[in-house]
């Protein structure tokens, strides 16, 4: 017989992410929006910058709203470009994001007549980072108003931007998740996500996971670590049957 495969780790990626799609689906396309969303990571030069980026990055719901806003302006084509003037209008003082968005635009104004999704996403990310430093709880309301304003605008597709660095990746492993349903595996700094995984291939007949800890239990003392949980991550445990 063949060799059974198990993949375990903290992937810093939530359920439904491109990372999970690659692991469980065997492929991720060059056009997947996460290539554009991760483009700014290359500009982080230190561990402190990476940690600040992690804690102030957009949530899955916020990313979905940003994708919808861009897709509307681009006529449904995430790989297209949109007119920079439309973005400047949305982020102006009279736009949906108010003073916070206008201040963000002043610092990160788009260059050139059109922008792609990577630059569009970086504006939303920069907006959250600036708001996060002042009043973290207010970003949700700003984002809703900004996206509603954009969705009221006419589509403004422009010349497609240069390729934004995506490549197609694939593998031949047939992986399955041993721990589907784990609501939270990381909880610290006011942030909680399910980012840890155990994947196994068809060399195993069954996976029996140990019961997961719930979000309420993990956040009872504000976050991890605590006296009962010595790490900011919980352990995932399962029995794999050959």
TrEMBL record:
<dbReference type="GO" id="GO:0000175">
    <property type="term" value="F:3'-5'-RNA exonuclease activity"/>
</dbReference>
<dbReference type="InterPro" id="IPR050410">
    <property type="entry name" value="CCR4/nocturin_mRNA_transcr"/>
</dbReference>
<dbReference type="GO" id="GO:0005739">
    <property type="term" value="C:mitochondrion"/>
</dbReference>
<dbReference type="GO" id="GO:0000288">
    <property type="term" value="P:nuclear-transcribed mRNA catabolic process, deadenylation-dependent decay"/>
</dbReference>
<dbReference type="InterPro" id="IPR036691">
    <property type="entry name" value="Endo/exonu/phosph_ase_sf"/>
</dbReference>
<protein>
    <submittedName>
        <fullName>Uncharacterized protein</fullName>
    </submittedName>
</protein>
